[in-house]
Amino acid sequence: MKSWTRREFGRLTGAALLTALNQPKARGQAKARVVVIGGGIGGATVAKYLAATATAIEVTLVEPRQSYATCFFSNLYLAGLRPFESLSHGYEALAKQYGITVIHESAAAIHPAVKTVALNNGSKLSYDRLVVAPGIAFRDRALNGYDEAAMEIMPHAWNAGQQTRLLRQQLESMEDGGLFVLVAPPNPFRCPPAPYERASLVASYFQRRKPKAKILILDAKDSFNAQDLFQDAWNRHYPGMIEWLPAQFTGGVTAIDAKTRSVITEGATFKAAVANVIPAQMAGRLAQQAGLANQSGWCPVDPVTFESALQPGVHLVGDAIIGWDMPKSAFCANSQAKACAFAIAADLTGSARFPAHLFNTCYTYLAPDDAFSNAISFKPVDGKLKSVISFISKVEESSEVRRQAARAAEGWYDAFTHDVFG
Amino acid sequence: MRPVARSAIAAGLVLLVSQSGAAEEADQGAQLASTCASCHRLDGGGTIIPSIIGLGEERLTNALLAYRASQSPNHIMHAIALSLNDEEIASVARYVAAQGK
Ligand SMILES: Cc1cc2nc3c(=O)[nH]c(=O)nc-3n(C[C@H](O)[C@H](O)[C@H](O)COP(=O)(O)OP(=O)(O)OC[C@H]3O[C@@H](n4cnc5c(N)ncnc54)[C@H](O)[C@@H]3O)c2cc1C
């Protein structure tokens, strides 16, 4: 297949899409190199925006997987409402249309003093700036007995892929009348509404196919995101099907017994037909190994440039960072990534700096035709990212408004994945 | 302030003034429009969420001003528009309108 040069790309798409910024510093100089580790939502967005708008920068993206499956909309797949393939996105457009060098390898180590990245295959990459966007890892020994082998019996499905398919298979083969146990993690974690969206959509599947089944949520917390909206919807759509037990009732989940597929709390043992165990989280392993995370397990960054507070020349975006008011969502990762790309472009090419606009919107499904949305904008204030404007759907909204939001979510998925993967 | 920092800032100013005002506004428009692309495809495609390509500068400006004034009909566009000042609305509207041509 023909590979496009950047100039041809610009000619082909005409004025549509993204245009190059003015880059006064870059004239007559050797191209600056940016390496991006992690081709998830945050990393792919940084790479694309740098390549498209800072044409004087050479961009390399390091990502082990050939295609990325989105966590967002994976709950619809679990409910049988979307094929798995519809969640998958390749890197062809980033490579061919945007001229990004995509290397399908894992980064093994970072050496900030000499500005190099070592890959698993033994090769080395040099950089002028590095961006690290590794997503999340699970905390070691967060739950007794929940190891790699247990994950194959009681999946987390908190990274989309084989784990998500496994959970779907288990839900499909579960007998009517079975108990589905969902273990919800402590704060902070990837996508605050997502465990409860998952319970809602699995309930809609049970209602259609296994009406006698029950769902038990064992939470590490005493309250959760948009609780009033979820509990109102559970009463309306699935009366008696979903039970939520806060940590103050159970003492919290302390252990897992994969052999009997049981979840053990301080006071009781719950034997599940299918169990989805979502453990406590921290920044991805590479960030831990490279000294980019502090004792909280997450990575402190500058709220304007997203440069690491611990390693100069290294930037981080997405779930791995301490985002203050910004939740760990794909939308936030994408929004931070654009601000980060423009900050790096300004440093390396002299392009103009403007105040960044950081934003989050999540469309969350309560039932296939009932979704709510929030909209929050953030600003750097006193060295932190603070929410300055915030709206969320209301419990008393009409079913027509909710149906429209469920439809708009599909439009968002299309535009958003196009924005990230080209 | 250390002399090094001062001369770096001075150099930055020279670079800024050497750019024309129009180029600067276009760059601001491009950076703001990137935030719209999280929901609106800028290639004119897309489903359900309306396209903003081909609307024209005046219609874009008026739509953003109307969204900024009221939470109805849509709290998402209300929040977006509230985060933009008048100058930002002008530059994003001009930039997006130019993409349709
Ligand atoms: C069920 C569920 C539903 C969700 N729904 C929504 C939603 O509706 N809206 C929303 O905005 N968000 C949603 N999210 C959250 C969203 O998926 C994450 O916030 C988002 O993926 C974070 O992006 P990221 O780039 O930080 O991490 P990721 O997207 O996880 O990307 C990290 C990438 O880094 C790669 N990587 C890791 N280590 C290395 C290494 N050493 N070398 C090279 N590459 C490496 C990984 O392979 C991966 O591709 C949901 C999440 C879940 C679990």
UniProtKB/TrEMBL annotation, chain A:
Please report the name of this protein according to its UniProt entry: Flavocytochrome C
InterPro entries in alphabetical order: FAD/NAD-bd_sf (IPR036188), FAD/NAD-binding_dom (IPR023753), FAD/NAD-linked_Rdtase_dimer_sf (IPR016156), FCSD_central (IPR049386), FlavoCytC_S_DH_flav-bd (IPR015323), FlavoCytC_S_DH_flav-bd_sf (IPR037092), SQRD (IPR052541)
Q: Flavocytochrome c sulphide dehydrogenase flavin-binding domain: from which residue to which, for each copy?
A: 357-421
Residue ranges of every copy of the FAD/NAD(P)-binding domain listed in the record: 33-148
Q: Cite a single Pfam family from the UniProt record.
A: FCSD_central
* GO molecular-function term, one example from the UniProt record: oxidoreductase activity
Give a yes or no for keyword Ribonucleoprotein in this entry.
Answer: no
Give yes or no: UniProt keyword Cytoplasm.
no
Keyword field: FAD, Flavoprotein
Q: Which residues form the Sulfide dehydrogenase [flavocytochrome c] flavoprotein chain central domain?
A: 164-279
Natural source organism? Mesorhizobium wenxiniae
From TrEMBL, chain B:
What keyword terms does UniProt attach to this protein?
Electron transport, Heme, Iron, Metal-binding, Signal, Transport
Q: Output the superkingdom of the source species.
A: Bacteria
Sorted alphabetically, which Pfam families does this protein's record hold? Answer: Cytochrom_C (PF00034)
Gene3D superfamilies associated with the record: Cytochrome c-like domain
Metal-binding among the record's keywords?
yes
Q: Where does the record place the Cytochrome c domain?
A: 24-100
Give the range the annotation lists for the signal sequence: 1-22
Q: Note the InterPro entries from the entry.
A: Cyt_c-like_dom, Cyt_c-like_dom_sf, Cytochrome_c_Oxidase_Subunit
Task: Give a yes or no for keyword Metal-binding in this entry.
Answer: yes
Record GO terms (molecular function): electron transfer activity; heme binding; metal ion binding
Q: Give the protein name, as stated in the record.
A: Cytochrome c domain-containing protein
